[in-house]
């Protein structure tokens, strides 16, 4: 995540992003774009303000963990064929169906930071 991204700023609440440095774990994080956050800001300004003010880290953690697939390393081909995922929810792994736009998953692959992996 880029330090200029809204998601990166949210991930710093209560040190949530520190878990990404664990070399014994594998994570795939689908990072909402700044455009996605701008849409939330426009359509749900009160919710946006509460998330970004830093007082509701519990909700931020839940949102970010719903965008994370844990304990697996994926190739692009794997991701394209994926229809369900395991997301982190506290200490539990929960299965969720991936929501797709008209049956397609769109990826914009880019590595902005690597923790030596």
UniProtKB/TrEMBL annotation:
It comes from the Eukaryota. InterPro entries: FAS1_dom_sf (IPR036378), FAS1_domain (IPR000782). Pfam families: Fasciclin (PF02469). Gene3D superfamilies: FAS1 domain. Residues 1-117 form the FAS1 domain. Signal peptide: none annotated. This is Fasciclin-1. It comes from Portunus trituberculatus (Swimming crab).
């Amino acid at each position: 995540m880029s330090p200029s991204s809204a998601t990166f700023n949210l991930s710093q609440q209560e040190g949530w992003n520190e878990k990404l440095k664990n070399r014994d774990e594998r994570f795939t994080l689908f990072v909402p774009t700044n455009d996605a956050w701008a849409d939330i800001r426009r359509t749900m300004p009160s919710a946006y303000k509460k998330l970004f003010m830093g007082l509701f880290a519990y909700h931020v953690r839940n949102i970010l963990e719903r965008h994370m697939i844990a304990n697996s390393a994926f190739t692009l081909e794997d991701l394209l064929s994926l229809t369900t995922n395991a997301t982190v929810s506290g200490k539990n792994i929960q299965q969720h169906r991936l929501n797709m736009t008209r049956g397609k998953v769109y990826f914009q692959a880019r590595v902005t930071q690597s923790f030596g992996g």
